[in-house]
Design brief:
The chain has 16 helices and 2 strands. By secondary structure, it is mostly helical. It is a multi-pass membrane protein.
Length: 428
């Protein structure tokens, strides 16, 4: 099995879509980081909506955004790449533009803004993964996907810090923040579109393959719904436990969140490259084991009570972050390796549906479990994650041999060429 032991920064940028695309990702992440944590505040403070109405509008927008994913998948399978990425960024411009147009006390325009933002946020991951899979392949593609995630987390963190610094300006600052966010999305969309990456869709499906998703993906998609809970652990579960159970200072929650961001930014690529010596499915199963261990660690840490409990939770959070990093570096990479090229877009769209659904329901599930105590919360998460890891590990791909499908020869700036082999899981 071929492995990637190192990758140079210049090669990583090229495999990720090129310098212009990297700038587009950074600008888009900065805009999202500035707006996402304070969209609720905009609805409550500027539009004077109730917190419950604002939260419901945001949730409905995120869930309804998933409805667009089948169409996004078909669009990608017709060969579109950078165009879909640019569209996912542009539609968020519409969402941000509706915010200042919404009159105070009226929830419907705010809900429409949340819907456009939700569509863009749901469509972007699949479009980005398809673009990277077009300009890079094998383990270089895995590292490029990891690099994109690290870059995005850095931008999100920087954007959130900029927004926090602007909050002292009150309502006027929030309105200016929305305007700057819309401009950032517009610039990012223009940069992404200018990359001009397009894939030639296969004229007919290869013999022995139907025009559906990659084989044996149902268990993977179901497991992903549980795995993705780890992305909300530091925003929902840990603050809930630290503040309401251990009565710790909110500083501990902030420290966990900052540490998680720093670790993802610094370790996402190195850990993904290190794990390239193993199959992607094995690595994804390992991520489930690490996450399970961290959940049990949280259970043990909370049993220490006030005093030692908060520091112990913060220490276990590092283990949980490692599990998150391993999961993020292998899950999308596994889907791109399993999916036949003619249906890569639809496979990624279905994967995003499972991710979006998991992210949407996880806050409600986490808070419901927490209401029954620490054992129900952390024990339930551990059991579900371990079961998911077992399903991932035991699933049999049974993929046909590598077929001749379109993959890139020259990277960014032109159409992909036909005549090279598309690597299947286990062959890269």
């Amino acid at each position: 099995m071929a492995t990637t032991t190192k990758i140079q920064p210049r090669a990583l940028v090229r495999a990720s879509g090129g310098p212009r695309y990297a700038v587009a990702l950074t600008v888009d992440a900065l805009g999202t980081g500035m707006l996402r944590p304070f969209l609720l505040l905009y609805g409550v403070t500027v539009l004077r909506l109730s917190a419950s109405a604002t939260g419901i509008a945001m949730t409905v927008g995120a869930v309804m955004g998933l409805v667009c994913m089948p169409a996004v998948g078909r669009w990608l399978d017709r060969g579109a790449r950078s165009t879909v990425v640019a569209a996912s960024m542009s539609v968020r411009v519409l969402g941000v533009a509706l915010l200042p147009a919404a009159p105070a006390g009226h929830v419907w325009l705010f809900a429409a803004a949340a819907l456009f933002l939700g569509i863009g946020n749901q469509a972007w991951p699949a479009a980005h993964a398809a673009l990277v899979a077009t300009v890079a392949h094998g383990r270089e593609r895995d590292a490029a996907l990891a690099g994109g995630r690290a870059l995005r987390n850095a931008g999100l963190g920087a954007g959130a810090l900029l927004a926090a610094a602007c909050l002292t300006g009150g309502t006027t600052a929030l309105q200016a923040l929305a305007a700057v966010t819309g401009l950032a999305y517009l610039v990012a969309a223009a940069l992404a579109w200018s990359v001009h990456v397009h894939a030639h869709p296969a004229a007919t499906p290869p013999r022995g393959r139907d025009d559906g998703p990659a084989p044996r993906m149902r268990a993977l998609l179901a497991a992903n719904v549980v795995y993705v809970f780890c992305l909300n652990i530091f925003e929902v579960a840990v603050p809930l436990v630290l503040v309401t159970r251990l009565h710790a200072s909110p500083v501990w929650s902030s420290a966990v969140f900052v540490a998680n961001t720093v670790l993802v930014v610094t370790l996402q690529v190195p850990v993904t490259v290190l794990m390239s010596r193993f199959s992607r499915r094995t690595v994804l199963a390992l991520a489930g084991v690490v996450l399970t261990a961290s959940y049990l660690g949280f259970l043990a840490a909370t049993s220490l009570g006030r005093g030692w409990g908060a520091p112990a939770v913060d220490m276990v959070a590092v283990v949980c972050t490692i599990g998150e990093i391993i999961y993020a570096g292998s899950a999308t990479a596994l889907v791109t390796a399993l999916a036949p090229a003619p249906v890569l877009g639809r496979a990624l769209a279905r994967f995003q549906l499972s991710t979006g659904f998991g992210l949407a329901v996880s806050p409600a599930v986490i808070t419901a479990l927490a209401s029954h105590g620490e054992a129900a919360l952390w024990g339930g998460l551990a059991a579900a994650t371990l079961l998911s890891a077992s399903a991932v590990a035991t699933e049999n791909d049974r993929s046909p041999a590598t077929v001749r499908l379109p993959v890139p020869r020259s990277g960014v700036g032109g159409d992909v060429e036909e005549g090279e082999a598309w690597p299947e899981e286990g062959l890269s």
